[in-house]
Amino acid sequence: MNILNVVQHTSADYLGLMEDHLEGRRIRFSYFRPFTEQGRIPQAGDVCDGLVLLGGGPWGSAGGRDVPTLEDEIRLTRAMLDQGKPVIGVGLGAQILAIAGNGGSMQAELEFEVGYARRVQPEALGGFMPERFPHISYMRDRPVLPPEALVLAVDEAERPAVFQLGTNAVGFVGHPGFKTAMAEDLIMEFEECPDDPTPQLERLQLMMRDVEDALVSLMTGIIKVTGLMQSKRRIPLKLA
Q: Where are any strands of DSSP class E within the chain?
């Protein structure tokens, strides 16, 4: 059974609908919550088979309101890339992945976007990425991709929505397993929130079946690209 270390930046933003797909494939995941009193980020030497960096709500990475653990997470992500271990970045996590891969991030206002992404690489995610799929982003700032990054899909404004670094690192600007309750919790958790999020919440509620349907293919592709179903030999240690 393979193990993912998952870094949360806020209690409201978690794996969401992705959890069931991982559990169904017997892939375990261990959450790290550095924003809590006893929380920390995982260390490069912690036993795991991959790293997931989640979104941060109003936290960003471009200098306006950086997540407090930004530098530590960049170092961790670089170490994982150097070790050849899979990395999945979502929202703020995609920004951190881009920075760690010798790209960067740029300042942008906190936005709640609900729309669709369009595949631009026919063989994206091993051929499992749908041609069109929901793109839901609750995020401050945006990733600036390194030159070697491969854009797999773009959003409705033709900006990168999904990208790949190397053979097994993937960044999702939107959350492929986003749930309506996650947006509601993010709005309640922080004083800062996007202007008038109600229309986006209503649109998201109508799109949830599309989110669930698209995630079946997206998760198949993610697992294929990251190799998380492959057997790995390692010494078992107690999880954090």
A: 3-7, 28-32, 50-53, 87-90, 104-106, 111-119, 132-139, 142-144, 150-154, 160-165, 169-172
Helix (H, G, I), strand (E, B) or coil at 7: strand
Average pLDDT, the chain: 94
How would you write 215-226 as a 3-class SS string? HHHHHHHHHHHH
Class of domain 3-226: alpha beta
Read off the tokens for 69: 């653990």
The residue length of the chain stands at 240
CA angle, 33 then 36 then 42, to 5°: 35
Query: Side chain identity at 42, as an amino acid letter?
Result: P
**Each residue of 132-172: pLDDT tens digit?**
999 999 999 999 999 999 999 999 999 999 999 999 999 99
Assigned token pair, 92: 């703020």
What does the domain layout of the chain look like in residue ranges? Answer: 3-226
Token pair in block for residue 31: 């959450």
Instruction: Tell how far CA 214 is from the center of its chain.
Output: 16
Q: Are 108 and 91 in contact (CB under 8 A)?
A: no
From residue 116, give the alpha-carbon distance in Å to each of 21, 210, 226.
21, 10, 24
Closest CA to 168 of 229, 105, 236, 103: 229
Q: 2: Cβ–Cβ under 8 A, 6 or more apart, which residues?
A: 26, 27, 28, 49, 50, 228, 229, 230, 232
